[in-house]
Design goal:
The protein is of the alpha+beta class. It has two domains: 72 residues, no CATH class; 187 residues, Alpha-Beta Complex (5'-nucleotidase,  domain 2), CATH 3.90.780.10. 39% of the residues lie in helices and 21% in strands. The chain contains nine helices and eleven strands. The protein has a five-stranded mixed β-sheet with strand order 5-2-9-4-10. Strands 8-7-6-11 form a four-stranded mixed β-sheet. A hairpin with a 2-residue loop joins strand 7 and strand 8. It is globular and about 70 Å long. The N terminus is likely disordered.
């Protein structure tokens, strides 16, 4: 998994206007620090001292006052309501409301933006529960909810695979007891699988299929190193989190709410 970054940094990457404001804010802080003293410092001696850095050090009120207007604008952007969920969405296995919603939304959005990359092949999507760091609440969904859910800068990738490679993936899904998937219907028996269909077609070891997933998983994360044995690897340049934010916004624009169902896409015999 890519290193976790702060919500503010991630959000500034998503919103250029906020990036400009934040850059200006920190420029003001830096300039203020420089103007405090223009004298040349001369080191006459040095002593190693251990300091405890905590709230007892206090806060520089002048800096707080300087950045307050920009922080307020950044906070208000994170609080923007982008959708409404009829119920709380939580992750789980073998399938879940949260996993189903995100996996299906992933296929829908990527098909609309990268249709040519699908090459009319059966398509499935894959996420990992470890990458879903929170739930989505019932009621209003804000941008900060999506950042809390997915704090990582994972890029969406499209990979073309032989059915024989996907069968190794199904083995892993069975061993884990389920993973968030879209476009796939998988029947499990204990820690193995007995039947798999992608968009209504029984998976054939010799045929090709499309897997939409994160660059983290596509490059071997979560024990999926065999995904490197692919026919084609396409970088979309789209961040997973950004696509979910735009997808939720579009639902709202269509006057729709978030209301997924569990449908037996992964089930036990």
């Amino acid at each position: 998994m890519k290193n976790k970054k702060s919500y503010i940094w991630n959000f500034m990457k998503t919103n250029k206007r906020i990036l400009i404001l934040a850059a200006f804010m920190w420029s003001v802080v830096l300039l203020s620090s420089v103007l405090i003293s223009c004298k040349t410092a001369v080191l006459s001696s040095s002593t190693a001292v251990s300091l405890i850095v905590d709230d007892s050090l206090g806060v520089d009120s002048s800096i707080v006052e300087t950045i307050a207007p920009y922080r307020k604008q950044l906070d208000s952007s994170m609080k923007e309501v982008i959708g409404y969920s009829e119920t709380m969405l939580e992750k789980g296995m073998p399938e879940s409301l949260l996993g189903n919603f995100l996996s299906d939304l992933l296929i829908e959005r990527v098909k609309s933006t990268s249709h040519d990359s699908m090459r009319s092949l059966p398509v499935m999507s894959l996420l990992n529960n470890g990458g879903l760091r929170s739930s989505l609440p019932r009621g209003e969904i804000m941008i900060e909810n999506v950042f809390q859910l997915m704090p990582f800068d994972n890029e969406i990738v499209i990979i073309e695979l032989k059915g024989s490679v996907l069968m190794k993936l199904f083995d892993i899904i069975a061993q884990k007891g389920g993973m968030p998937v879209g476009g796939l219907r998988l029947v499990l028996n204990a820690t193995s699988w007995t039947n798999a269909e992608i968009e209504g077609q029984v998976v054939d070891a010799e045929k090709n299929y499309i897997l939409i997933t994160s660059d983290y998983l596509a490059t071997g994360g979560d024990g999926l190193s065999f995904l490197s044995d692919n026919v084609r690897y396409v970088q979309t340049g789209l961040l997973m989190r950004d696509v979910f934010i735009s997808g939720i916004r579009d639902l709202t624009a269509q006057k729709k709410t978030i209301n997924p169902k569990t449908d037996g896409r992964i089930r036990y015999e």
